[in-house]
Amino acid sequence: MKVHAAGWTALVVLFAAVIGLQMIQANQPPLATPEGVSTNLLYVRSPQVLERTTLSFHALLADIYWIRAVQHYGGTKLSKEPNKRYDVLYPLLDLTTSLDPYFDVVYKFGSVFLAEPYPGGAGRPDQAIALLQKGLRTRSDKWELAQGIGFVYYWWRADYQNAAMWFNRAADMPKAPDWLRPLAAVTLAQGGNRASSRVLWTEIARNADADWLRTQASFRLNQLDALDGIDFIQRIVDEYRGRTGAPPASWDDMMRAGLLRGVPPDPTGVPFRLDPATGKVTLDPNSSLNPLPSAEHPL
Amino acid sequence: MKVIGHVAVNVFKESVRDKVLYNLVVFAVLLMSASYLIGELTAGQDVKIIKDLGLASISVFGLLIAVFIGIGLVWKEVEKRSIYTLLSKPMRRQDLLLGKYLGLVLTLIINVAVMTAAYYAVLAYFQAVSPPDLRASWPAPATDPALLTAIALIVLELMLVTAIALLFSTFSSPFLSAILTTAVWVIGHFNQDLRDYGATIPSPIAASIARGVYYVIPNFSAFDVKLQVVHAQAIPRGYIGLTTVYGLTYIALVLVTAVIVFSKRDFK
User: Fold this and answer.
1) Is A225 within 8 Å of chain B by CB?
2) With 0-12 CB in 10 A as exposed, 13-18 as middle and 19+ as buried, what is A297?
């Protein structure tokens, strides 16, 4: 009986000790990784090997690799490391799509992760295009993949000729939406202007099947509205300068002159900023719409 | 026939006594906890992943039961020496063997049926809580009845694995039977490679051997349509029919072999 009680006591004490030690360990600073050594490990790099060794569990393993890709992308994006690297992002996406070639979302999101400029993404539009083309080799009638390639050429390469060609190719595919053909025409004619950007983002906001992509499209549309708003107010400021010979010192001057009824806000409600020295209208630095796209990279 | 039924029911009761059905609890906990965690880990592919995970789990749990119980079906009777008592009764050896097989198949079917019910319950929950625009983006509803096609073929595959495990258990130790059954199952998934092997090697003899092995080894990859059903790809009825006939024929072949081996075995 005594032994029994002693056993239970030992069990409780040891269990508490294990938990306590683990708590102490959790508070220790992590060991430094040697210079040049990546912590992003890929145990298997060959899609062919992986395909064969997973027997009948391709789909499940594809899910695991997809989750790894999402975690790798999200973790690296949020990391404060100055030299952070998305070095296994493409191999992970490649393995995922080799295991499950019908996993549409991997092509769709994966290409966004890869194409987004560094440090927000891998900054590899070439890999984004390669991934989408791999998808098209399996599913040659999937218009979304061709549109995705056009999308990468449009935004991340500013190659409107190729973008229009891919939008047209997507438009030729079964079940392609009507707006692709006009989009191709607008891209070819006025590549990179706000009108074509608005068409593209509006369609994405309307048709995207993922919340974050719709949110991204709404954000881009708000940025476009902000750019239009800045242009509009800038014209009024210039009119004020034409009348008085000097830029307004503040929005109050504009209101007193009867040119504005109040302080103009951007689409998120944060007031635009007026530089009294130059009369230049910009977004407030605190606006969540920053940074606005630059002239050479117009959304 | 009545004898076979009695043996089968006893095998099922024994598996219940052996706590085999506990795996159902593990399955349910795994699926429910995964359903919660996956939403946090991935970008909006919860239903696809739950479908994959559920089908893979049904397959793995079933496989473990088929192999690890199948290999002990005959061996346990020999080890406990109860085989002498059994064979002294008015019962043919083949009745004992077929009864054992059907008992384990019954256990597997009940297991898979309960797992399927839990699987559909989780999917129905996802279907109910997902907003309509998200549901519209799915290639098929969460509770797509086509998933049952994949589950039916998993059951057929498990029935074949059980038959193979039973065959090995009639003449070898459980350890060896487990290794041999698993090896056949793994090789059976490489069948496609065996068929294509001939194109990659110059020797016509080696190519012929590989092709011969391709025809003899059970083609387990044929039973795998999980990827297709999850992506709402149509599985031709002809394919399902042919695979079913292939599976049942192969099971019959293995059982007949097992009966022959068992009937020739000397237990003295």
Assistant:
1) no
2) exposed
